[in-house]
Specification:
The complex is a heterodimer of chains A (about 80) and B (about 230). Chain A is mainly α. Chain A has one domain. Chain A contains four helices and no strands. Chain A is globular. Chain B is mainly α and about 230 residues long. Chain B contains ten helices and no strands. Classes of the chains: A mainly alpha (about 80), B mainly alpha (about 230). At the A-B interface, α1 and α4 of A face α2, α5 and α10 of B.
Amino acid sequence: MDSSTEKDLRRELKIHAKALGIPSGAADSFIDETIKTVKKNLKKKTVITKADFERMVARELKKYNADFAYVYQNRDKII
Amino acid sequence: MGIFISVIILVLVMLIQLMLQLNTGVFALFYHYALGKLSRKKTDDLCLYYILGTEMFIGGIWLIIYIFLFNMVGESGEAVFRIMPWVLVGVCMAEALASPFFYYRKGKMTELFVPRKITNGISGKVKSVKTRLDAFILGFVVGAFELIFTLPLYLVALTVLMGATEIPRAPVIIVYIILATVPLFATRIMFRTDHNLAEIERKRVKAKPFVKISLCVLYLIVAGLMVYIGVQHG
């Protein structure tokens, strides 16, 4: 994951976390852990699609907060 | 035209308007992103402008169709009441058939059968709203994208209103405009009572089969009643 992707992902996740009412300290910790694990998993793969990447992020988020994962994964399927 | 039938048609048309989902979906997403970026006070302020934009669009459309139909009636008198109900029967039948199969996309979410380019455009706008003007324009534009489903409703209601002179037109139109934004106010209340987008979406997904069937049945009933009106006006 390059730094701009990580920055965008972090920014987006922070928006969702605030909107969901997750306290900022907890949200930061969830996001850090998620990104750390996703980065680790990405190292094992040579090619990955956007959908796979999003699924991976959602799977990690689900460990901390189901609503957080749900909103992130389905944000483009609401309209 | 019987006042009883006219009132029933107007109520059905309003019910259909209440069930349409595009504006509700966009509004929920808009509120979520605004809440994630801005303060609750600013979000509430913007959401009122969004609703105002939607109301302005609906009011404007009513006015345009009203003027158009009024001129038609003025020029050709009864002719409009002979043709219009039959045209609307066809349109309502088409909407009834489309509702269960084409209103939502397949899948576990509430994705609507709107071209992807449009939904991507709306999503981009939703994420970037910062000012009252942006929110107002977004509400206005979303109303326009919903026209494929709402235009027949306006036409049915206005045809009925023009035929039933006993029913006061202005109050009905005002009630219609207010009712059209009830789902938006309901969504706002849900957000304000500590519901989040995930909870609202899960409720909407659960209601999907009900909405599909209800839209189909309501459009069919309206089509049936328009046949009755068409026969009456021979």
